[in-house]
Amino acid sequence: xxxxxxxxxxxxxxxxxHAKRVVDIIRQKTPDAAGVVYxxxxxxxxxxxxxxxEPFRQRRYFYYLTGxxxxxxxxxxxxESSKSILFIPPIDPDDVIxxxxxxxxxxxLARYDxxxxxxxxxxxxxxxxxASQKPKSAVFAIANxxxxxxxxxxFDNKDFAAVKEAIETxxxxxxxxxVATMRKANHISSxxxxxxxxxxxxxxxxxxxxxxxxxxxxxxxxxxMAYHPILAGGRAAATLHYVDNNAPLKGKLNVLxxxxxxxxxxxxxxxxxxxxxxxxxxxxxxxxxxxxxxQQECIGLIKAGALWDDIHLHAHKVAIxxxxxxxxxxxxxxxxxxARTSAAFFPHGLGHYLGLDTHxxxxxxxxxxxxxxxxxxxxxxxxxxxxxxxxxxGVYFCxxxxxxxxxxxxxxxYIDAAVLDKYWEVGGxxxxxxxxxxxxxxxxxxxxxxxxxxxEALISAS
Length: 462
Description:
Elements: H1 5-8, H2 15-29, E1 35-40, H3 60-66, E2 74-78, E3 83-88, H4 93-99, H5 105-111, E4 116-119, H6 123-133, E5 138-140, E6 157-159, H7 162-172, H8 176-199, H9 206-219, E7 230-233, E8 254-259, E9 262-263, E10 266-267, E11 270-275, H10 282-301, H11 308-326, H12 333-339, E12 388-391, E13 394-396, H13 399-406, H14 417-420, E14 428-430, E15 433-437, E16 442-444, H15 452-461
Parallel strand pairs: 1-5, 3-4, 5-6
Antiparallel strand pairs: 1-2, 2-3, 7-8, 8-11, 9-10, 12-15, 13-14, 15-16
Helix pairs in contact: 2-3, 2-7, 8-9, 8-15, 10-11
């Protein structure tokens, strides 16, 4: 994969452009909106019954408008002048001996894309001054994310909904810098997936594979995982969000690895499935080939304006054709599709938006959806150019899900239990890449190998 992203990442995170975009979105709904956007970052919180802080994770709404990953900070943006102000904690002499000097005002101004940096002790006077500049102005903040000591008394109007909605809309389409961070997160994560494959034959426990993945990420500067890694051996691969990562691997056919690192808070989300021995069994390869085809064809359908529901439906059609060819499903493909029987083997959505969160905002899911194919989709509607989506089809053999289908009068007639019995030990296969939607197609950001012959060769050579 090209590492051209490094040149882009030498610049500053484009916080001011993001703030302008958010204000423009607010004004699309309320043309005369004026005043101040006020956001707070994550405040330091101590662990219960302990003198150490909880692990820090910056609020993503705050980060989107600041690019600042420091704790205990605040932000104000004057909508009229387009002036941005970052507030950082003042120096606490008692803390310096333990933690060293914090970032200074001059350092923060050089580091972040803001117009001014002040101390958090200046928040209330600054807000009061900004409010006085324009009578009847509003303050736009996020509900339940304003400290008790911060007062909005001078503002005639207070809006605790619009800015969050606007940021969620803005975050769907990524700019060049954001894409570069995700390219780097994918680059590092792909190297880590390679390290897992190289460890496959010698690992005795799932946790050893997790250690191989995390070690590569940390060694390349990506200390934070985008989510808790999934390292699922054998039948555990049929558990979609398996998190134990501790079971022995002896006697198991395959391992499913769903893991991705963060770079500057932006996520990679990659899944690979591979044989521990270095050679797929016939049954494992049967299922892998179906999922591989599902993913390839779906990626080929992605472009700006494509309806995600249709692409997801296509994945089911490919799965049905493949399972019919193996004899796991029987009957008419169209009838099976209409009955939604394939949801027994592919129960989740094809993918989701990706960005500052793994399951990123703006996807408009509908958990009240009555159609079993679409109930668990985290992404509905048409995908715009500049959005980043995951493409993660899968076929799973989970007894808890499939057996009720076998016992059901509608679905049972389409499933051959005798053929199905040959596939339980496969567990599940999922293949997941991250793609950037473009005007006429998409750009795959993920370089981790997935062609079955390459997987077998790498494991066998290790």
